[in-house]
C-alpha cells in the first residue's frame, strides 16, 4: 500500500524540536523527503546551533527516510528562498511547506518595546510570507502544492501579554486565506492549524501562581505528536478538497474553527447619528458582542 506522502518533498520550518520535530518525523514516516529547517535558537530567537536540525535529520535517515538540513532563517526573503532551494537541490522538487518556525517575546502591551514587536512579527508573519512566496512560483509552475501555517488561539481568541504573537498569528489566517483564493486555480491549497501542545515556546509560560501551574500541567499532557497526523493529512493528496480552513488540535480532539462572519445588523432608513447609535443601534447589537475571552476561557475542559 502506497504511503500517503510517497514521492512528495516537504519543508518543515522550526523542525529542530517540539511540534516541528514531530511533524518532520511524521512526514518522513508517511513517505516524504523532508527538509528539516531550524536555526537552533532559543525561544526568544537568540543564539544559533545546527545540532537540533541535524539530530532530527539523522533520526529520519536512521529510520530509512530521506532528509536534508537547512539552518537558514525564515525572517528574510533571501534566506527563506534558500530554504526552498535546499529542497530543490536535495530532492529535485517542492510539494509542501509547513510554516512552523516561531519565537516568543511576551510582554503586556503597555510595556512592549518596538524591538519585541518587530522580532515576533518578523519571524511568524513575515517568515511565513517569505517561505510561502518562495514556494509559490514552483507550485504555480507544477500546478500543485500545499501550505500548512501554524496559527494560535492566542490570535483566534485572545491571550494576555501576547499582542505581538497574537497579531502575527491572526495575520497568518488572513495570509493563508489569501493564498488559497489566489492560487486555487493552480491546485494549490493553504490551511492553518492552531496547536495545543507542550513545546519549548509553551515552556516559557510563567508558572508563578497556582492558576498558571495548573494551566501548564494541562498543556503538558498534550504532546506535539498529536499535531503531526493532521499536518501530514493536509499536505497529502487525500486533502485535495480541503482549502482555506482553520483547524485546532487539542490532544485527541480536532476542531474546525469559525472565521469572521456578520452576526447581527441594525438598519435605519434615515441614516445614523452618534446619538441614535448610542440610544438604539448599540443596544440592539449588544446581545451579539463577542466576550473578552482568553483562549483558556473558551477551551476550559480538560484534554482527553
Automatic annotation (TrEMBL):
Transmembrane intervals: none
Ranges where the Ketoreductase domain occurs: 8-204
Keywords for the protein's UniProt record, in alphabetical order: Oxidoreductase
One Pfam family from the record: adh_short
A molecular-function term among this protein's GO annotations: oxidoreductase activity
Entry EC no(s): 1.1.1.-
Entry annotated with the keyword Glycosyltransferase: no
Signal peptide from the UniProt entry: none
Classification via PROSITE patterns: ADH_SHORT
Chain segments annotated as coiled-coil in the UniProt record: none
Family: Belongs to the short-chain dehydrogenases/reductases (SDR) family.
Protein name as annotated: Short-chain type dehydrogenase/reductase
Organism this protein belongs to: Cupriavidus pampae
Amino acid at each position: 500500500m502506497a504511503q500517503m506522502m510517497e514521492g512528495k518533498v516537504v519543508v518543515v520550518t522550526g523542525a529542530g524540536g517540539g511540534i516541528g520535530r514531530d511533524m518532520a518525523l511524521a512526514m518522513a514516516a508517511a513517505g516524504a523527503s523532508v527538509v528539516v529547517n531550524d536555526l537552533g535558537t532559543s525561544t526568544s530567537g537568540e543564539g544559533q546551533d545546527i545540532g537540533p536540525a541535524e539530530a532530527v535529520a539523522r533520526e529520519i535517515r536512521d529510520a530509512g527516510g530521506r532528509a536534508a538540513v537547512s539552518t537558514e532563517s525564515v525572517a528574510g526573503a533571501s534566506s527563506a528562498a534558500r530554504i526552498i532551494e535546499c529542497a530543490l537541490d536535495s530532492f529535485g522538487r517542492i510539494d509542501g511547506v509547513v510554516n512552523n518556525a516561531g519565537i516568543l517575546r511576551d510582554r503586556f502591551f503597555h510595556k512592549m518595546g518596538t524591538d519585541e514587536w518587530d522580532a515576533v512579527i518578523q519571524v511568524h508573519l513575515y517568515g511565513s510570507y517569505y517561505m510561502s512566496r518562495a514556494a509559490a512560483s514552483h507550485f504555480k509552475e507544477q500546478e500543485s502544492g500545499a501550505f500548512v501555517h501554524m496559527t494560535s488561539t492566542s490570535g483566534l481568541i485572545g491571550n494576555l501579554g501576547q499582542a505581538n504573537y497574537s497579531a502575527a498569528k491572526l495575520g497568518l489566517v488572513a495570509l493563508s486565506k489569501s493564498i488559497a483564493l489566489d492560487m486555487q486555480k493552480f491546485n494549490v491549497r493553504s490551511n492553518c492549524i492552531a496547536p495545543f501542545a507542550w513545546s519549548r515556546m509553551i515552556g516559557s509560560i510563567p508558572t508563578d501562581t497556582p492558576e498558571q501551574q495548573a494551566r501548564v500541567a494541562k498543556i503538558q499532557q498534550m504532546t506535539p505528536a498529536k499535531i503531526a497526523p493532521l499536518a501530514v493529512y493536509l499536505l497529502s493528496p487525500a486533502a485535495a478538497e480541503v482549502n482555506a480552513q482553520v483547524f485546532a488540535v487539542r490532544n485527541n480532539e480536532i476542531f474546525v474553527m469559525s472565521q469572521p462572519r456578520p452576526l447581527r445588523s441594525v438598519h435605519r432608513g434615515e441614516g445614523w447619528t452618534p446619538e441614535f447609535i448610542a440610544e438604539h443601534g448599540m443596544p440592539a447589537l449588544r446581545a451579539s458582542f463577542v466576550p473578552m475571552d482568553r483562549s483558556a476561557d473558551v477551551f476550559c475542559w480538560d484534554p482527553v
